[in-house]
Amino acid sequence: ATAARGHVRINNTLYPNAPTFLQSGTFFVQRLLFLGTVCRRVPAASGLQCIAPLVQSVEETPEPIATEVHGCIPSWIEGSFLRNGPGKFEFGSHNYDHWFDGMALLHQFKISSGQVSYKSRFLRSDSYRANSEHNRIVVSEFGTLAVPDPCKTFFQRFLSCFEMPKPTDNASVSFVKYKGDYYVSTETNFMHRVDPDSLESKGKVDWSKFIAVNGATAHPHYDPDGSAYNMGNSYTKKGAFYNIICVPPERVEPEETLEGARIVCSIAPVNKSKPSYYHSFAMSENFVVFVEQPIRMDLLRILTCKLRGKGLSKGIYWDPQQETIFHVVNKHMGTPSAVKYYSRPLSTFHQINTFEEDGFLVVDLCCSDDGSAINNFLIQNLRQSGEALDEMYNSMTGSFPRRFVLPLNVDENTPCGKNLNTRSDSPATAIKVYCTHEDLHGEDLQEFGGLEFPQINYAKHNTRPYRYFYGSGFRHLVGDSLLKMDLQGKRLKVWQQPGFYPSEPIFIPSPGATEEDDGVILSVVITPTQEKGTFLLVLDASTFKELGRAEVPVNIPYGFHGAFNASTVACHINHKQSRVAPL
């Protein structure tokens, strides 16, 4: 059940490095069948609406403006709904190539006594300031190389091709919390600590000044005491490593940031020169689960991207000949399990929830059978129309919620050929220890294009058994519906309005809530067909019916992730109910 490996020949084809526990006939044949399975795609679409206005540059709104409320926004909601995402896609005559490259625009919907105000501000990152000063792109981003300096000589410009692009501090992905402070984050080593009221940066923070990592994800997890866990890569003479990071829950000094951060455990990739790309990770009460997926980062291609005239994204590729590996690490001891859990090739960007029960680790993820989509989100693709847009969407696979059940009590005496998942409530299998999944949905989810941007009642049910999760349906290149999944019966509830595109849903529990879904869902809804047709949507999380909306008289681009910053009063009300500080 450990990492012993050998070679298998079937039909005169040599399959090197096959896990030995899969080499007995039926299990290895099963593995080959899974590797050859056709990617699961959603039904073909035709006549998709052009969404080009959703990925156009907008102006910031630095001073609060009033919104027009329709319906009823519950008076107990007190705080700010914060959103992050790209809002500027060009400087001068130079355009960004990839959607992920746009300059970070921070949004705040301040909710109090049933009323809502809105403001936004571009993050004054070093990248934003330098680009603005020169009126061109001078800092490379994920999919866009910096424009060569016209003031340099030909020879100087030639020599600059051998330089590695400096990491950007354009933190456009999410809002996160460390030691009670808000940060905006991307996936490089830079974050910005921000004031959630003014949306202004309070300073750039560099992970590498505190621990030996070259970046970290924009999706940390939190323990009940406020300790934050994250993951980041390091690149050494011995190759790449995946690192689990822990940041303490409280500050010792008023102005400190990541002081006290430590590396809990380092994991060696299967291929140290081509480590896996990952956007998030899973965590239970006692374990961190890292999914090493076959989306590979070719470090040589990335190091030579300027020489080749290609963006960093061109060094990332999908390798469906490789398996997916689940690494399980005891987060308290910092010890990795000797057992590696294998599965068919899959890609995952967001985990739903992970918990331990009866000797099993239950890992719920949003998964796709194809990991090439990351290079499809070019701005020119998102601005397509007509048949070209339909063709782009139909070339992609959907992301669907899946459950993996990993047995924790596996050793050299565990019998081969036996399904180790003895849980009667899940048909997922684990055969020493090749895992298949259970679909956490019915066939009706196909109609809505799968599910992404998953959210749960994090305060009460993160790392615990749960019943409900929420997400965005993707019957377009961006989310076009809001979904609620009830795991008891896998029943789906949907909010959808044709021509409107809601953001990632955020769950806020009601004061004194006793039921898991007693609360509201917040989402920012935008449309390409109405000038200034944006609104903040508030749904009853239980019934999934609209309670109210606040119409915003400005245009907002489609963004990525957000968080709810509860007011001091709301935090006091919910203090005894929450296992972690409200996000």
TrEMBL record:
Q: Name one GO biological process term.
A: retinal metabolic process
Under the heading InterPro entries, the entry gives: Carotenoid_Oase
Highest taxon of source:
Eukaryota
Q: Name one Pfam family in it.
A: RPE65
What does the entry comment about cofactor binding? Answer: Binds 1 Fe(2+) ion per subunit.
A molecular function annotated in GO for this UniProt entry is: beta-carotene 15,15'-dioxygenase activity
**Which cofactor(s) does the record list?**
Fe(2+)
* Annotated keywords: Dioxygenase, Iron, Lipid metabolism, Metal-binding, Mitochondrion, Oxidoreductase
The keyword Iron appears for this protein: yes
Residues the record lists as binding Fe cation: 219, 279, 350, 561
Q: Which reaction(s) does its UniProt entry say it catalyses?
A: all-trans-beta-carotene + O2 = beta-ionone + all-trans-10'-apo-beta-carotenal; (3R)-3-hydroxy-10'-apo-beta-carotenal + O2 = 4,9-dimethyldodeca-2,4,6,8,10-pentaenedial + (3R)-hydroxy-beta-ionone; 13-cis-lycopene + O2 = 13-cis-10'-apo-lycopenal + (3E,5E)-6,10-dimethylundeca-3,5,9-trien-2-one; (3R,6R)-3-hydroxy-10'-apo-alpha-carotenal + O2 = (3R,6R)-hydroxy-alpha-ionone + 4,9-dimethyldodeca-2,4,6,8,10-pentaenedial
Family of the protein in this entry = Belongs to the carotenoid oxygenase family.
Q: What is this protein called?
A: Carotenoid-cleaving dioxygenase, mitochondrial
- Organism equals Scleropages formosus (Asian bonytongue)
